[in-house]
Amino acid sequence: MNNNTLSNGIRFIILVLVQVLICNHIQFLGYINPYIYVLFILLYPLKNENRALFLFLAFFMGFCVDTFSDSGGIHAAASLCIAYIRPLVLRFSFGSAYEYQTLKISNTNLGQRFMYLFIMILTHHIILFSLEIFSFTHILLTLKKALLSGAFTLLLCFLFIPLFRTKNQ
Prior knowledge:
Arp2/3 complex 21 kDa subunit ARPC3, mainly alpha
């Protein structure tokens, strides 16, 4: 087991525990809830990425959160969707640095990092709340929850990213 695998395993466990023990109990104004576990998907290493393993880990991350939250698979579906579109968003946000596998998220400028995190978190939250509410008549509630929870999650992600920085990232 190499150092990268160990650090990803520790990151996985810490983020699941933080989500289910702390973040699931934060409810601002009744509907603003942070989903910090998406950081695992967002910060998963790019080099030598085994796509099938990454999709499985994203699904398993969501499944673990669903199991502890009793949410019926919505986190697993949203996590799998953002893991699937991640290469497209990386290419859009970082351009040639992603194409040539020279991308280190910690070395990117704030605008590119913000764009990447914003697109991924907003996509995750729209899918999550669409599946949770599951009604076109409540589309405004879905968007309101997605935008407000997304903004809170984005803020927490910017605060948590330095904690998960490794030497080779």
